[in-house]
Amino acid sequence: MKLLDMMYISLFAAIIGILGFFPPILLPVIPVPITLQTLGVMLAGGVLGARRAGLSLLLFTLLVAVGVPLLSGGRAGLGVLFGPGGGYILSWPLAAWTIGYCVEKSWSTLKLWKIITFNVVGGIIVIYVCGITFLSVVGNLPWLATAFTSLVFLPGDLIKAFIAGIITLKICRTYPLIKKFQQAA
User: Fold this and answer.
1) H runs (alpha helix) in 49-111
2) Which range marks the domain in which residue 85 is found?
3) Dist. CA 147–CA 125, nearest whole Å
4) Based on the structure, what is the number of domains in the chain?
């Protein structure tokens, strides 16, 4: 791995940490807060590509696991990762990788609607399936009831997918990191 790769991986882990400074929105119906950090997950996947995005979110998750308070509200530690919202956070490396993989595979025909679709698939569906399953197991709740309750996140996540799509497309056209990485490999 090159120094430039490590720099971008670290940069996006830091960006997602910075998004954690925005206070979480707590809801009475579900013990998982609404945060802006999933926007960073979507951006990492779209801008860095699969491998680097996955590694960036893996780095972020490891930092949280050892106690660096990077999650929204200054939360950190294994207690958070194995608590009700842990499945959502633990799914972030896979979600970023999924988005990055999709963007890489359609690089030559990349359009806004495709990036938004990739954000929905990786940044919403992957995260929801992992998070809902984890929450239902940890909370000893029925999966369908947990899934239904989690729909409260959907409007905000769709907005984040759209915003991340616009930003990703602008960055990819202005400074195409994925293309640079593909040429360097």
Assistant:
1) 50-65, 78-81, 86-90, 92-105
2) 3-184
3) 11
4) 1
Q: What is the pLDDT along the chain (185 residues), one digit of tens a residue?
A: 899 999 999 999 999 999 999 888 888 877 788 899 999 999 999 999 999 999 999 999 999 999 999 999 899 999 999 999 999 999 999 999 999 999 999 988 999 999 999 999 999 999 999 999 999 999 999 999 999 999 999 999 999 999 999 999 999 988 877 766 666 65
Positive or negative torsion for Cα 66, 73, 154, 114: negative
- Are 150 and 104 spatial neighbours (Cβ–Cβ below 8 Å)? no
DSSP code string of 134-166: HHHHHTT--HHHHHHHHGGGHHHHHHHHHHHHH
User: Residue 23 carries which DSSP code?
Assistant: P
For 177, the token pair is 């990191």
CA distances from 129 to 102, 120, 150, 156 (A): 18, 12, 10, 17
Mark residue 27 as left, alpha or beta (left: phi above 0; alpha: psi -120 to 50; beta: remaining): beta
Please report, for the domain that includes residue 138, its CATH number: 1.10.1760.20
CA gap 128, 136 in Å, rounded: 12
